[in-house]
Model the fold of this input.
Amino acid sequence: MNNTASPNTICVLRLSAIGDVCNALAAVQQIQQGFPKAKITWVCGKAEARLLAIFDDIEVVVFDKSQGWRGLIALRKQLAGRRFDVLLHMQAALRASLCSLMISAKRRIGFDRARAKDGQWLFTSEAIQIASTPHVLDGFMQFVAQLGLTPQPPSWHVPLSEQAVTWAKQTLGEGKHLLICPAASKDYKNWTLDGYQQLAEYALEQGFRVSLIGSPSAKEKALSAKLSQRCQGQLNDLCGHTSLEQLWALIQRADLLLSPDTGPAHMAVAVGTPVLGVYAHHNPKRTGPYYSQEYVVSVWQQLIEAQHQRPADQLSWRSRVKDPKAMQAIEADQVIAMFQRIQREHQL
Done:
């Protein structure tokens, strides 16, 4: 079904994570452009709600997963008496599908069968078409097409406040800026301290100011502190000391972001900052920074082929490298070489 009738109310269901919400946002903003009178309500997690708070044209409804069934009941109460024209069920996970039962909608659109894992197709009445590439963002863009619009190349409008932009400018100062986000939410996605140190020291030699970013979690702050100590205090450790809007403003202000497979990489894409990605566990053609995929240093293909003893093109694009030490296979020389390429191509 491809209904071209203009919806008046649209509910987006994407609970997590920061990077996926950033990718989904590109599709949602295209829908807003196609249906400028439609009111958008987005059901998401607590951290993601802080990210979306800067968008005045999106109503944010928070689902607190830590409350379990009570969180589902609270969601139902928040949306009681409302019936949306369209539900965009943009998360193929059982928890999200249970949340979808709390949302009343005339049309319930979910993923194509290849992406609709955890039985998501049981909770929807329509499915998007299969995307031409495995990237999660291209999958999200099929929701645009399902509403009768013609998807355009993904782009974002991120309305950062003047206060946040000024703060980022003052915090970073003048010069060339490299941001390093050393930690992902899952430790196995992190690169090595030695690798981060060598890249940071090389960037310092090239005249860059280097700052560390991340969430206020104890693990992320500890990793940043260790890296800062190794670099003898030459790094500006901002990990855990920013709001999400301030973090976005820092990324926008920077010349380059070095990051593993985690949210800030996708925040950078949204504001046009190049990303040097380091990947081992997941296929970067699926989860890499959308407009910086050519700048990803990845060992995923060689490791997944060794794991399965088959060529990568014969495996599912979802295939994950299970070795917890996989990121150690990325050599600092590889990352420095990619850093040099980005310097040349962006004249940094």
The domain at 162-346 is CATH 3.40.50.2000 (Rossmann fold). The first strand starts at residue 9 and ends at 13. The radius of gyration is 21 Å.
